[in-house]
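tool_call: predict_structure(chain=1)
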Amino acid sequence: MTAAAIVTLKSGALYMTCDVYDRYFAGLETVILLRRDNDLCILPVRHAAAGGYLLKLRNKAGDRVVHAPDFFREYGIEDAVALELSVAWSSDRGGLIAASAFRL
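tool_result:
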């Protein structure tokens, strides 16, 4: 895995800075969110037709937000929760991983 970065989970949405977006998802419009054991996996989607959650532009700085309240509620993370999650790129899994994100 690569060096860790931070994403924020708040009100059913996942927030990432422009730096995190540019480093791992530059040019992409969607990601897939998966739960693998207790880990949150944020996987890039290379073809928008494949589906996934939109990486919406949040501000002029280029920060992004992924609105996914349905996904987080399904796994027991309520909208009122606000968390900072350490994430790192995993070549093995092909995505950004927040280890133990579901062990809250």
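agent: The chain has one domain: 5-98. Proceeding to next step.
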